[in-house]
Amino acid sequence: MHSCLQDDLNSKTLQASPFTLKKFSEQAAISLSYTNYLERQNLLESNARSYPRRIPIAIKRAQGIYIEDTKGQLFIDCLAGAGTLALGHNHPVIHNVLKNYLDSSGPLHTLDITTPTKDTFIKDVFDILPAEFAQKAHIQFCGPSGADATEAAIKLAKTATGRRSVLAFSGGYHGMTHGALSLTGNLAAKTPVSNLMPEVHFLPYPYEFRCPFGLKGEQSIASNLHYIENLLSDPESGITTPAAIIVEAVQGEGGMIPAPARWLKGLREITARFDIPLILDEIQCGIGRTGDMFAFEYADIVPDMILLSKAIGGGLPLSLVLFDKSLDKWNPGAHAGTFRGNQMAMAAGSATLDVIRTEQLCQNASLMGERLRQHLQEIQRQYSHIGDVRGRGLMIGVEIVNPEKLLNDGSPTPSGELAAKIQRECLKKGLILELGGRNGCTVRFLPPLIIKPEEIDRVAEIFAQATQVALENT
Ligand SMILES: Cc1ncc(COP(=O)(O)O)c(C=O)c1O
Fold first, then answer.
1. Do 351 and 314 have their domain in common?
2. What is the total count of domains within the chain?
3. For residue 183, how far is its CA from the centre of ligand 1 (angstroms)?
């Protein structure tokens, strides 16, 4: 066992009664299970822990797209910190930048006071923005999580417009804080929490495989846009003109669902016409993952706000809102937070953007994504339990279905159960994947952008074998 963890546990104390202080290690249950990381994790961490339930490993080392667990098994990491690790684990450039920063006597943390590192980072971020947006943009550094970027953006939109409602999309994910959760589709997370942010309304997302209007292709897109436009113009819609509409250009947690370019363009056009700020949540799909620096770029649109977190900090916590400065009606201190000044994250973020550019990782994400999609489509031809293969760049989803059980509209039911079996088999064979979408029916591929062709082939090979085994055991 890690001696530092042991020391840590030994040094902690629990108050067993008002008069007796017992050392943590003296608690029988804990000392009995000292040799097992997972047992201890289950014992001590809250019931809300999520990934360890499906990926029950303890990670010892990590390099590139690989991680090694404490038992010595090697895994290909196609989760990559939920898309955070664009350059994979311990990329040598990031490693050096962080080491050099530590040796430089630079501050680790500065609230929102500026530094040369921050100044460079802001310039680097503005350099990747679409020129039209960069010319009129302001930046707000947020507390370190993506959810705080969501919170900041909604507060800003409400302040700027003086309006109170917000529109979001079914299947969308914007974080787990009170406000962000209100804008998130997933009912399992929302149902137990009462009094979420009021006046949030949900619109249908253009989920082509399961079109909410039961239509296909162009008809599905046109109906969706018509629905939104009608809602906004109907004086009896029941929804006051919103302060903002928030959307992901590719829904990540919702099941790797890319919005068609024509739909995004339509949404931009409608929101501009109704003077509603359009927020693009690029926290998961941004920073090269979809083959463009920002996922919305393939639709050739310019949003009013962009949310960034995950990869923008080079693997360290950082989150930002970039927005049209005409919306900047904030008073001083209107959105604050202690951890807005993580200098190592800014240094790592600048280095990440540099590596993405010099190693042409957007292009690699497109090429490798296409390669993986082709493999997965080939596998789909062999198994009717694979309902859909979709995505953009290295943000790919495989929706698992039960072809024998049909819904009323004749489409196969989503099968979270089989998806979980495939995920487990993949893990046994050394491939880490995550699930998402309705009832976890979509297997999600989010590898680092540095992944190579032969590694993509291996990922697909393991997935095919795991699918075969999972189906044999159903
Ligand atoms: C699109 C999107 N928005 C917001 C968030 C929330 O980010 P965080 O978990 O850092 O709060 C996530 C996290 O997965 C996300 O995928």
1. yes
2. 2
3. 12
